């Protein structure tokens, strides 16, 4: 439509970076610009859109309703812009990248990232392996993976780049699943499994008896056992199926569960396609946190 204003992607980038970093000073450092320049870019974006996007206070910064509404659109525009720029820079990039990831993560957040990557680099073949974290580590250290997403304890070894933090919750088919004096029936993956270890260690810490009621390597198998009411499980909050319930820890006598982390580890030497995939994963998961 004639007269329709266009939005400079650099204005969107300034706005998104301010939101992601929590302030104008941090955004300026990340974008290697002056703080006044970042502030001016956000102001110009607000003028172009005819809406205030950020509430600025002396000690806080928050999104307005209008800011919330355009944030995801701004992210999509920047991602598409980066895809086009990458295609122009490296149109003939080809090869194979071997990526490992836990099943729960590989079936939720990862597919969209991989789809974006393959649209940009259609000649790069991806080989994705889904296993438990310790099995992924064995495969990675054996030279079988270029990149691997692994679950780790926040207080554990500093291995890889942290890309995601996972709040853990107790999940069951109904709200009274943890009521009673009998040993708590647990549904989990076989050893070694970080969520299994987190559940049993937390219960042991408060002296609550438990038993393994159902153990399955497959995430879908454990979900089926939960739906059948065979017990309760520990799952990441963002990955709880809509037809299962989250148990309130205090009301059910269940212990609190500390967060776990997802980290990305990379081989010492990466091909150009593997390096690009690493950048995609880190960028997209940082935006989703």
Write a structural description.
- This protein is about 45% helix and about 20% strand.
- With about 290 residues, the protein is α/β, with parallel strands linked by helices.
- It has three domains: about 10-90, Arc Repressor Mutant, subunit A (Orthogonal Bundle), CATH 1.10.10.10; about 95-165 and about 260-289, D-Maltodextrin-Binding Protein, domain 2 (3-Layer(aba) Sandwich), CATH 3.40.190.10; about 170-260, D-Maltodextrin-Binding Protein, domain 2, CATH 3.40.190.10.
- A five-stranded mixed sheet has the order 4-3-5-12-6, with helices on both faces. Strands 10-7-11 form a three-stranded antiparallel sheet.
- Helix 1 (about 10-20) crosses helix 3 (about 35-50), helix 1 (about 10-20) crosses helix 4 and helix 4 (about 65-90) crosses helix 6.
- It starts with 8 loop residues before the first helix and ends with a helix.
């Amino acid at each position: 439509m004639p007269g329709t204003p266009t939005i400079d992607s650099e204005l969107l980038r300034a706005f998104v970076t301010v939101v992601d970093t929590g302030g104008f000073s941090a955004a300026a450092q990340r974008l290697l610009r002056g703080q006044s320049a970042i502030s001016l870019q956000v102001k110009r974006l607000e003028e172009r859109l005819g809406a205030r996007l950020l509430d600025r206070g002396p000690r806080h910064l928050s999104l307005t309703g209008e800011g919330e509404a355009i944030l995801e659109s701004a992210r999509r525009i920047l991602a598409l812009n980066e895809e086009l720029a990458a295609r122009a820079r490296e149109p003939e990039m080809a090869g194979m990248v071997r990526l490992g990831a836990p099943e729960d993560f590989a079936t939720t957040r990862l597919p969209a990232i991989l789809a974006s990557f393959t649209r940009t680099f259609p000649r790069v073949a991806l080989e994705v392996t889904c296993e438990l974290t310790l099995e992924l580590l064995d495969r990675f250290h054996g030279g079988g993976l270029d990149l691997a997403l692994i679950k780790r304890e926040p207080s554990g070894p500093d291995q890889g780049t942290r890309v995601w933090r996972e709040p853990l919750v107790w999940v069951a088919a109904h709200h009274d699943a943890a009521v009673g004096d009998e040993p708590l029936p647990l549904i989990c993956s076989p050893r070694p499994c970080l969520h299994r270890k987190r559940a049993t260690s937390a219960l042991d810490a408060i002296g609550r008896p438990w038993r393994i009621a159902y153990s399955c390597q497959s995430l879908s198998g454990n979900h089926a056992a939960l739906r059948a009411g065979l017990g309760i499980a520990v799952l990441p909050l963002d990955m709880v199926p809509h037809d299962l319930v989250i148990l309130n820890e205090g009301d059910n006598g269940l212990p609190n569960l500390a967060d776990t982390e997802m980290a990305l580890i990379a081989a010492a030497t990466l091909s150009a396609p593997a390096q690009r995939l690493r950048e995609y994963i880190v960028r997209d998961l940082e935006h989703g946190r």
